[in-house]
Amino acid sequence: RDDVLCRVALGVQSQRDPVFSELATEVGAGLRIERDLRSRRWWRRHAALCRLTVLGMGSDLAPRMLDDRDPRVRSAAARWLALKSPTAQTARRLIGLLDDAEDRVRHQAMAELVNLGSTAAVELRPALSAADARVRSAASTVAAALADPRIAADARPLLTDPDPAVQASALHATMPILRADDEELVGVLLEHDDAGVRQAAARVAGEANLRGLAGSIGRRLDDDPEQDVREAAILALEQLGPAGELLLRHAARQLERADA
User: Fold this and answer.
1) Whole-Å CA distances, 85 to 38, 81, 82, 114, 230
2) Span between the terminal Cα atoms of the chain, in Å
3) For a tag site, which of 100, 111, 228, 259 has the least CB within 10 Å?
4) Which residue in 177, 173, 176, 212 sits closest to 190, CA to CA?
């Protein structure tokens, strides 16, 4: 009966309609789910959390599953918590998973933080300056997805982080507050040894309309060995108005000569 109820809940527009939670209580699904959450078998604990999520039910045991020994269960617990209780406290619990040893759990926590939106934004601040590079990278990636000006300034110091992945994410996270005064720093990142940083710098320069960097972006288009960087340079130049268009025409003429 529990499986039938879950399939019906999945088939309707709102999976968290209170009617399903009430119906599940009436048929005793809650007691069976609580029992399975205590199971020694990971797949039963995982299935129980999935049923809680689909049916929109609460549980005193479910939050404890964030500390479960199995990463699949921890990931399911993160999903349940974000759906059941989209609060600042939940955001802090999810941020606590950003140093998890398992990629699956970290990625699930990051996805749920993005889903929480502005509720998670301010809570990210301590994680952006964490000692653990994995946490800084995850937090800056979430901040970039949120694009919230309230935390953009907190991500700015990460533009000089020793980890290239953190720098690339920080470029996107700070984009809402980048101004012409930042052109020098972004220009330095356009020449970075890491292709991911160069690509991010080109994209952000275009999105932030840093017109003074048109020439540097043009050089990325002409000389960069990585196709992803060159494609980002094309998009950036298209966004930079007449100066960018001039450089694109110049690159096109050079390509025509090379093909002749």
Assistant:
1) 22, 6, 6, 14, 43
2) 72
3) 259
4) 212
